[in-house]
Amino acid sequence: MAECILEQLKSQPTWLLLLLSLGLFSLLKLSLSILKWVYVNFLRPGKNLKKYGSWALITGPTDGIGKAFAFQLAKKGLNLVLVGRNPDKLKEVSESIKSKSGSTQIKTVVVDFSGDLDDGVSRIKDAIEGLDVGLLINNVGVSYPYARFFHEVDDKLLSDLIKVNVEGTTKVTRAVLPGMVKRKKGAIVNIGSGAAIVIPSDPLYSVYAATKAYIDQFSRCLYVEYKKSGIDVQCQVPLYVATKMASIKRSSFFVPSTDGYARAALRWIGYEPRCTPYWPHTLLWALANSLPESVVDAWRLKFCLGIRKRGQLKDSRKKE
Fold first, then answer.
1. Residues acting as catalytic residues
2. CATH class of the structural domain 46-309
3. Burial 107-122 (b: 16+ CB within 10 A, else e)
4. Which single residue of 17, 38, 67, 95 has CA 20 to 30 Å from 73?
5. Residues 6 or more apart from 99 whose CB is under 8 A from it?
């Protein structure tokens, strides 16, 4: 049988054999990609995060994804340094975590990332002095109240977007990193956004998307710089998650709850330098990549114009 097939192949023209070879190679490549996707999303075990150190520092831990990270890391047995701007909310989250994970040690640091950032970073340095902070979750971030054209972005919003999303993440990382370098171990997770990575553009959210593109490149560079120092740096790229910032109240198959996202996110820490932890988001990413950029751009512009219209209506009602 095999000899018969071999003889038939020999009798075929060279161009046909080349096409068959390319087809088989493409099929093999696709099969390996699918197997890898299944393994990393469903079979690969998460790392023991305590190996990085017994403390984790989280920015923006009083709401949304940051709050979910705090609870999930406490369940894993890590002590927490919670950095946020609202002391009452920090206290509330701390007490709630301790009620469920009583052995967790918690330190809180009040920092307004849109205010005096240098003073805030100084307080972070003082708080972590002597602690083996092995995990840093740079989650703090701000977005637009609703979609708007770039010329409609006021000075305060423009300043906050750059200061919180870019300067805040950069300076907190610089504050925590020396201890990791000294101990030769650590993990840094920077929360990016599909607005900067998955879709080719995010019209009417231009500055937000640009700040998240910075986070992605910043993370990749640090990943290369510090990999040999025992420090794993990763940019996580969520799409929509049911949070206040995304203005989504209910979770669904493609829109996880904050707890659902955080549980998935912990399994990816220490692996790829860029990832989308919640597996249904990878399907949306694949769909976006399969479509022409002009189609995605047009759909996104139409979608964001709808958000802008609804936001303007809400503003006008508040003024009445």
1. 208
2. alpha beta
3. bbbebebbeebeebbe
4. 38
5. none
Q: Are 167 and 114 in contact (CB under 8 A)?
A: no
Is a pLDDT exceeding 80 seen at residue 6? Answer: no
pLDDT at residue 11, as a whole number: 66
- Hey, what amino acid is at 3? E
Q: Which pLDDT does position 47 carry in this prediction? A: 97
Buried b / exposed e across 125-162, counting CB within 10 Å, b at 16+?
bebbeebbbbbbbbbbbbbbebbbeeeebeeebeebbb
Token pair, residue 5, equals 């097939």
What are the tens digits of pLDDT across the range 135-180?
Answer: 999 999 999 999 999 999 999 999 999 999 999 999 999 999 999 9
Contact in structure between 137 and 78 (CB atoms under 8 Å): no
Query: Does 17 score more than 70 pLDDT?
Result: no
pLDDT tens digit sequence for 42-97 = 999 999 999 999 999 999 999 999 999 999 999 999 999 999 999 999 999 999 99
SS (H, E, C) the chain: CHHHHHHHHHCCCHHHHHHHHHHHHHHHHHHHHHHHHHHHHHHCCCCCHHHCCCEEEEECCCCHHHHHHHHHHHHCCCEEEEEECCHHHHHHHHHHHHHHCCCCCEEEEECCCCCCHHHHHHHHHHHHCCCCEEEEEECCCCCCCCCCCHHHCCHHHHHHHHHHHHHHHHHHHHHHHHHHHHHCCEEEEEECCHHHHCCCCCCCCHHHHHHHHHHHHHHHHHHHHHHHHCEEEEEECCCCCCCCCCCCCCCCCCCCCHHHHHHHHHCCCCCCCEECCCHHHHHHHHHHHHCCHHHHHHHHHHHHHHHHHHHHHHHHHHHC
- What tens digit of pLDDT does each residue of 278-309 get? 999 999 999 999 999 999 999 999 999 999 99
Torsions phi, psi for 299 (to 5 deg): -65, -45
